[in-house]
Every structure is written in C-alpha cells, then in structure tokens.
Predict the 3D structure of the following.
Amino acid sequence: MKSKFVVLTICLSLAACGYLVHSETLEHGEVAPKQVTLDEYLHTIPNWKNVQDHPLLDVILEELKLDDYIHRTFTNGEDMVRLYVGYYYSSKKVGAAHDPMVCFPGQGWEVNNRSQGSDLRVVGREESLSYSTMTVKLGETIELLVYWFQAYDQTTDNTFSQKMKLAGSKLMGNGEDNAFVRISMPCSSRDLGECKNILFDFAGDFYPRFYDFVTSDSL
Amino acid sequence: MPSNTLSKTYLNPTALLSIVAIAALYIYAFFPVWRSLINTWSNSEDYSHAFFILPISVYLIWAKKEELAEMTFNRSVIGCLIVLFSCFLYLFALAAGVTTIASFSAILCLVGAFLAITGIRVSVKLMFPLLYLFLMIPIPSQLYFAATTPLQLIVSKVTVSLAFLMDIPIYREGNVLHLPERTLQVVAACSGMRSLISLATLSLLFGYLTLKSNTLRTILVGLSLPVAIFINIIRVSIMVLGFYYFDYDLTEGNPHTYLGMAVFALAIALMLLSQKILTRIER
C-alpha cells in the first residue's frame, strides 16, 4: 500500500510539473524592446547639458550583450559628470558582467574607499536609492564612482540582490527591465565629500526621468 | 535474508515498471533543466568536469552493491515530500527566471525520488554519492565573480612580489602587470577559480574514498583553495619569466594550454601528497 502511495505521488507530481513546464502557463513570452532608446529619452536631463558621447567598442557590446546603453558626459556649467547605463529588457541577462569590481581592476585601476548607502534621495520618489560608491585610481587620476543596479522599479547595491529583486518582480507580473547605472567624476584635486554631493545632485536630476523610462509600458 | 532486500524489492515487473514510469516522467518534467545544464557544461571551461559527476555517483553506488544487497529497502514518505517540494521549487524558479534554483530543484527531485523508493537507511548509506550530484550545478555568476576578484588580486600581487625577488622590473596596476616591453593582464581565468572548482570536486572524492575522519576530509577539501592559488601564481610567474627572459609568449595558443595542463598536474600531485599525509595522520 505504501509502495503504491509513494509511486503514485511521485508520478503525479512529476506529471503535473511536466505539464505546467511544457504548457504556456509559465511562459512570459519575449520581452518587446522599447520604441525609444535611452539615448533619445535621456538626451536632456534637467540642469545638465550634453558634452560628449563615448561609444563603446563593438567587442565590449558583444561581451556585455547590451540591449541598450548610454555613455555620455554631462555638465552643469561648473562640473563634469560621466553617466553610463547598461540596459537589458529581460531578466535572462542579469549577471555580474557590469560589477565594477570585475571591470576596474582588470583595466589596471586600483579600487579604494568602497562603501554602500541608501541615503540618495530623489525628489518625487518616496524611497531613497540604494547605491555603492568607491574611488578608483590609475596613475595620478582619481575618480569617484556612485553606482547601483536597477531591478525594474527598485535599486540595489549588488548584483545578487538585483537578481532576487528581479525574480520577485517577475513573479508579481511586473517588468523585467534591469540596468547597471554608474555616475562618475574626476576627483583628484577635490574633496571626496564635495564630489559625492555633485554626483548625488546629478542622480537626483537624472533618476526621475530614468525611472519613467524603465517602468513605462507606453515607450 | 530480510524479506524486502534489493532483489526482492526491485527485480519484479511491477517495481521495474514503476521505476521506468518515474524515470520517464522525471525526464519529461526536467528535460529543459538538463538541456540547459549540458549546454553550460559544454560551453564553459569551468564546468566541463561536470559531465563526470553523474557517472562517478553511479559508480560509487554500484561499488556498494554487496552491502546494499544485505540491506532492507523501504519506501519513504519524506522522499515523496522532497519530490513535491522540488517540483514547487522548480515551478517557482521558472516563473522567477532563476536558473540556479531550477538546477537545484532537478537534483533535489532526483535525490528525493531515490529516498522515496529506497528508504532512509539506504539513502543515508549512499548520502555522499547522492549529495555529490549537487556539484553539477554551476555557481551563480554573482557569487563566482565575487570570489574571483579577490583571487585575481592575490595572484597579481604575489606574482609581482616574486618577480621583484628575481630582479624583474615589473609594475602592477590592479590586475595589469607592466613589464618593460609587455603588458600582462591577470584575467578571471587566471584567478584560480577554475582550478579551485575542479580541485574541490576531486578532493571531495579523494577524501570520501581514502579517509574516514570527516575532519580530515574537510581539511583535504580546504587545502584545494591554497593549492589553486599557488598553482596560478606559478603559472602567471612562469608567463612573466617567459616574457622577460626569453621574449616568449605563454599567454595564448598551444604553449598556454600545455602550461595549464602542467600546472594542473602539479595541483593534482599536491592534493595527492596532502591526502597521503592526512592518511598517515589518520593511522
């Protein structure tokens, strides 16, 4: 009797599981790309003007398998800030390819002053952004980076958390858009706190527009 | 002889049919996971050894056939619950798009089904070969890179220190090593992570087969980390020496492959030596 129960339970579990797997119940379908590119949508950021675009090499685009990206320098008339966003339409491409701890040492940069925070406030948003920050040094050049991983409508300071948040978003039937966002500026001859404030100011102007791009279904 | 031994339990038409049905339904349900796993193993130099894990587990179980022939086989409801749980986990993983959890659920289901069909006593006896199957699951990239980055830095820093001792003019920026006329980048593949994964998998098997103490087995597995780092320092140092003294490029092509094979053979030798020492300690 027990044998029949065990065999029947296993068979029914596997059969039901197999049916759901092979049916369209769990399929989300292909994610449609947006009609507008990041470049077009973020062409203007309040209080900041475009200075220069920095196109990525084809080999890098191929390696990162980006669906969209923007790599541009902005200025507010006094300071220059560089923005990089590596964007993906689906959660299948979430990975650690963008982690600065992977990229920067590999190009010779020395990484220092690493920290995480969640006090990046943005006007119009209830929640503060979670981010990571660090300085990178190459020769005499020092840059301050503020970066985060966008998991649809949430931010996080590491890729693992991004993966988990995206899984939750997908389960709730929300979008799968995800991105790596990095804001940086030279800080060789300035106080780090001052540089951080400038990057925070930029993030405050940039994020509402970026958030709309990520979460909009009509773009 | 106990009434429900191996032969009496399974070598009858009904039991065989049940096993075939379970196997067929398992393949039906988990085929996408195995296809994805095999694809990963085929395309990754880090996990090409994973093809051997299932045959090794099967061999380890077969090697105990005489002991198993004397044991009592039962059914286990706990095994059924594990199968049920793994199916739910699998569906969750598919809905959430988390491949690692899907792979984990596939193997958990296999283990659960084995437990359900053979019972707790037999499964405990075969715990190692069953748990060894979980090594087929690739490490998530987030964890992989989190581990690789510090290993790369260690290899870079120690290589530079050794080069200084040999009076080689060398300068390090991050993981980039600058020689007078060459630049060498210590990439993720040189971090030792690949060696570590293979050595840890092997040392688990060595420990199981040759040592009895779980403490000594743990020490043997733990030694795979310093050995992996050590052999990669050796490998990168040889590349630096090759560049500086002989203007010879060992970073690509056949020389690179042969060098990799040679240092991995050294790693195996070091692990075997460690195992021999631990065996003596155990006596």
The two ends of chain B are 35 Å apart (CA to CA). The mean pLDDT of chain B is 89.
